[in-house]
Amino acid sequence: MKFVLGVDAGGTSTRALAVAADGTVLGAGRAGGANPNSHPPAEAAANLAAAIRAATGVPGRASACVIGMAGTAKLTDPAVAALFERTWSDLGLDRVVVLTDAEVAFAAATDAPDGTVLIAGTGSIAGRIRKRRMVATEGGYGWLLGDEGSGFWLGREAVRATLAALGRDGDLGPLATAVLAEAGVDATDRKYAWRRLITVANAEPPVRLARFAPLVAVDDPAAADIVERAADLLVATALATREPGEDTPVVLVGSVLGDGTRVGERVRAKLAGLEVRTSSDGVLGAAWLAAVEAFGEAAARRPG
């Protein structure tokens, strides 16, 4: 039986699908994270192999395998690259294409070969997609240098707004109250609360500020201002990757941009007039790209 493999190798988990030429899903596997930047490379490779083995309980060899991986930059290390090459060989995989998680996320949402992918989770980045490959990026510099509009950025702005509210007279609004509760800070003594919130925020790794991001969903003018600024920044990041007058899809990816989120709603409103789609399952994009790789555009069928 002819089949292909699609793999979504993230930082938290790895999922694999074995898919027939007609799009039928033949097997699925799941394992721990396989991002070699956030896990020791040997552990990442082992988790990737475990997910693939769980998915391939079908006779024959995969005609192609596409792996969407967070942390592909790590494969520029010759030792890490050799480790993963041995993993492909041990699995009997002859035709492996490693792509970024952004590329498979774009393919999961649209058949179009060209467009824009905008990702906003803990961090943020936008990419220009051409022939299903990312050829240019905007943002993605990490929490210290950028990640505007991301979960980290939203959380930081929520804490900053709370500190500003604590420094003024007047009642604390719903956002400040929620931030203090999340931080475990008693607001009875405002001067103490101001100092204590600074201490709590600085006691953790900076990226942990993302835990305050969901709090901007409260009904509060300060929260609405943060949401609006985040949406403006994310839209600007996405548009910076597009050519004037470009008529291609924009695919939104990540927890900040999900359907029903306040930031996602504002981003969609600001991109009115463009075709905007949401990607929720990168492994389907990886499997479809593997089918295109093996069977060609005309023969490939999206998994279902």
List keywords for this structure.
304 residues; alpha/beta; Nucleotidyltransferase, domain 5; 2 domains; five-stranded mixed sheet; 10 strands
Written overview of the protein:
This protein is of the alpha/beta class and 304 residues long. The protein has two domains: 3-110 and 281-299, 2-Layer Sandwich (Nucleotidyltransferase, domain 5); 113-248, ATPase, nucleotide binding domain (Nucleotidyltransferase, domain 5, 2-Layer Sandwich). The chain contains nine helices and ten strands. The strands form two sheets. It has a five-stranded mixed β-sheet with strand order 3-2-1-4-5. It has a five-stranded mixed β-sheet with strand order 8-7-6-9-10, with helices on both faces. It is globular and about 70 Å long.
Quick summary:
With 304 residues, the protein is α/β, with parallel strands linked by helices. It has helices spanning 41-55, 78-90, 101-109, 151-166, 174-183, 190-203, 221-239, 262-270, 282-299; strands spanning 3-9, 13-20, 25-32, 65-69, 96-100, 115-120, 124-130, 133-139, 250-253, 276-279.
Q: Would you identify the CATH architecture of the largest domain?
A: 2-Layer Sandwich
On the 0 to 100 scale, the average pLDDT is 91
Number of structural units classed as domains: 2
Question: Strand portion, in percent?
Answer: 15-25%
Output the number of helix runs: 9
The side-by-side strand order for the widest beta sheet comes to 3-2-1-4-5
Unreliable sequence segments: none
CATH level-1 class of the largest domain: Alpha Beta
The first-to-last residue Cα distance is 18 Å
CATH topology type of the largest domain: Nucleotidyltransferase, domain 5
Radius of gyration, Cα only, in angstroms?
Answer: 22 Å
The CATH H-level homologous superfamily of the largest domain: ATPase, nucleotide binding domain
* Total count of strands: 10
